[in-house]
Amino acid sequence: MLLPLVLLVVPASLALYTSKDDVVELTSANFQSRVINSDEVWVVEFYAPWCGHCKNLVPEYKKAATALKGIIRVGAVDMTQHQSVGAPYNVQGFPTIKIFGADKKKPTDYNGARSAQAITDSALAEAKRVVSGRLGGKSSS
């Protein structure tokens, strides 16, 4: 009887983020409604739990999520569970970070440093473009 219980616990423990983090778990069931249909800017990491670079990013990504809380949404997609979410965005390696801002159909690829400061700077720059566009200004994207 203990074996089935252990098997249920193990997959959950492989996730890099939990409900206690400021990183929103995004899935094939909620990605469209939470990110694409949202007016908010989202920073989304596409990751695999076994990926060493993804594991190394976790502390900085959590720090960025906490710093951006209430300003910009930060989420993560476990691609081992929800591959269909990343397919339209050409996610081929891990971690891949994309910023969904003014044009949700064409998110911005994040290729900067893997630090909370660099991630937040890019997210805030995209938020500025969104605000400028809403005010009728020209977007620099």
UniProtKB/TrEMBL annotation:
PANTHER family the UniProt entry points to = PROTEIN DISULFIDE-ISOMERASE A6 (PTHR45815:SF3)
Keyword set includes Transcription: no
Q: Which Pfam families match?
A: Thioredoxin
Q: Which residues form the signal peptide?
A: 1-15
GO molecular-function terms, A-Z: protein disulfide isomerase activity; protein-disulfide reductase activity
Where do the Thioredoxin domain residues begin and end?
4-129
Record's subcellular location: Endoplasmic reticulum lumen
Identify the keywords attached in UniProt to this record, alphabetized.
Disulfide bond, Endoplasmic reticulum, Isomerase, Redox-active center, Repeat, Signal
Give the UniProt family note.
Answer: Belongs to the protein disulfide isomerase family.
Q: Which reaction does it catalyse?
A: Catalyzes the rearrangement of -S-S- bonds in proteins
Superkingdom per UniProt: Eukaryota
Its Enzyme Commission number?
5.3.4.1
Question: Principal place where this protein is found?
Answer: endoplasmic reticulum
Q: Which GO terms describe its biological process?
A: response to endoplasmic reticulum stress
Matching entries from SUPFAM superfamilies are given as:
Thioredoxin-like (SSF52833)
Q: By what name is this protein known?
A: protein disulfide-isomerase
| Entry-linked InterPro entries | PDI_thioredoxin-like_dom (IPR005788), Thioredoxin-like_sf (IPR036249), Thioredoxin_CS (IPR017937), Thioredoxin_domain (IPR013766)
